[in-house]
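It is worth pausing here to work through a concrete case rather than discussing structure prediction in the abstract. The textbook approach is simple: state the sequence, then state the predicted structure, then interpret. We follow exactly that order.
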Amino acid sequence: MKGKATFTGQEIEALRQLIRQLEKSDRNEQKRIRAKMRKLGFYGRDDWNIIGMTELQFDRLINEGKIRIIR
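Step two, the predicted structure:
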């Protein structure tokens, strides 16, 4: 695993906001958003084999226990 699988509640909310932005952005902006996601330790393609992350896919990772939230 290149990133991490345990995130704080704040990190989860930040990732959610970035994923929402990702879905609406052009290609150049998507690169910047993905860089911000990696700074939080989230590597969608490398760790989860997901290209074009959506909020639904993110929720699925959480619900399946692949991503854990610490309080």
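Step three, interpretation. The chain has a mean pLDDT of 95. The chain has one domain: 6-64.
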